[in-house]
Design goal:
alpha/beta, Rossmann fold, globular, 43% helix
Amino acid sequence: MTEDAASEAERNRRADEKAAKRKAARAKIMATKTIEKGLLIVHTGKGKGKSTAGFGLVMRCLGHGFRVGVIQFIKGRWETGERAVLDRYPDLVTVKTMGGGFTWETQDRARDIAAARAAWEEAKRLMADPSYRLLLLDELNIVLRYDNLPISEIVETLAQRRPGLHVVVTGRNAKPELIEAADLVTEMTMIKHPFRGGVKAQAGIEF
């Protein structure tokens, strides 16, 4: 064996040893994770991708044959690609688009509060239905940011949900009370965005 071949073989041996140790350590950690429960998941932050990540979980559940519900609190006026896909699975997906449009488009706070309340009542109805495995409350954080629904009621209701129900809440500026109650919180951080360069919202990317 040449010196270079011997050196490469030694590097491979050390790498394999380290990989084996990592695998053993990982297996030891995983053995302690025995709890299975419905999670409260919050996607927040100023970066793009909060609703996209939520719909990714919806698609994942569909792949397992789980029934899911989607309540859209804000994006009421757009025809979105995800809605077109989900409409193909009426037996597994319930989508309720109940918002009046983006916050900068609405001019009637009383109407916004009424729409938020109607959407929340529908969300509670789906939460009470044991056939649903996951519920996406898209842009609920925006509703809470403008105090169109009481945060105390939201947190209390989510805390009392069925043990096996996963709930995903999206939208920037998540309230501290919701973050504290959540099992998983991800903050999307914006580094760059094409909108700042004059690029408009595009089908397949924003909607």
